[in-house]
Backbone:
């Protein structure tokens, strides 16, 4: 199951679902009385999606006065009657209440990084948040892996940033929350088919299974499953 917790709703749009006012979404789960099962949609035989909505951008404000607001998603998931082999939560690119809810509900964090110099700045801020959540809200939380996306191995920049990220974790590996982090060997290369797939409402495996993008994500999935 994939939970789209990003107000931009890119994961929702990727699967051909247009967020509309009349559709229930994860927003209604967090701010109302809807259950996960009420809003979950089946995409394929083995893939379910909890869609997002633009209204989710106001969730921080609407939940400001709620006691235990950081644990709403965790509590709703614990009451869900359908169990999955894997649960992924797509987080927004900010470190607000939505991301805190996700970090409180899960056990593992995977960090996708585009190889440019600003990536390390964002990485350090995220790790500070993970450390805080692991100490105060979710002691099981760990950063399990870092994956490089939109990778161009022919550029010196990509190689330098990859080396910098590795050196960063070697230097900063004293925190329990990311002491055992793994930098995945699979690099997801730039691939036009990956950019085209969302416009057809399909995953890369349905849209172009013979593409480099599908090959890279298959290898990455195998690395994750083999951990």
Residues:
């Amino acid at each position: 199951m994939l939970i789209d917790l990003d107000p931009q709703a890119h994961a929702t749009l990727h699967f051909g679902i247009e967020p509309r006012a009349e559709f229930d979404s994860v927003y209604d789960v967090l701010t109302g009385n809807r259950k996960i099962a009420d809003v979950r949609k089946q995409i394929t035989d083995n893939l379910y999606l909890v869609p997002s909505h633009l209204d989710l951008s106001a969730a921080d404000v609407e939940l400001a006065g709620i006691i235990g607001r950081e644990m709403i998603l965790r509590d709703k998931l614990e009451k869900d009657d359908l169990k999955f082999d894997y649960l992924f939560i797509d987080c927004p690119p900010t470190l607000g209440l939505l991301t805190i809810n996700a970090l409180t509900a899960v056990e593992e964090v995977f960090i996708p990084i585009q190889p440019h110099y600003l990536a390390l700045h964002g990485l350090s801020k995220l790790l500070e948040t993970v450390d805080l959540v692991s100490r105060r809200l979710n002691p099981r939380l760990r950063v399990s892996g870092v994956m490089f996306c939109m990778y161009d191995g022919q550029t010196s920049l990509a190689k330098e940033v990859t080396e910098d990220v590795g050196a960063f974790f070697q230097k900063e590996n004293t925190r329990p929350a990311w002491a055992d982090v793994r930098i995945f060997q699979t690099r997801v290369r730039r691939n036009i088919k990956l950019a085209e797939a969302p416009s057809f409402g399909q995953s890369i495996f349905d849209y172009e299974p013979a593409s480099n993008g599908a090959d890279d994500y298959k290898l990455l999935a195998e690395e994750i499953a083999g951990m």
Remarks:
- Residues 1-106 form a domain with the Rossmann fold fold (CATH 3.40.50.300).
- The beta strands are 2-4, 41-44, 47-50, 88-90, 108-113, 142-151, 182-189.
- The first strand starts at residue 2 and ends at 4.
- The chain has a mean pLDDT of 92.
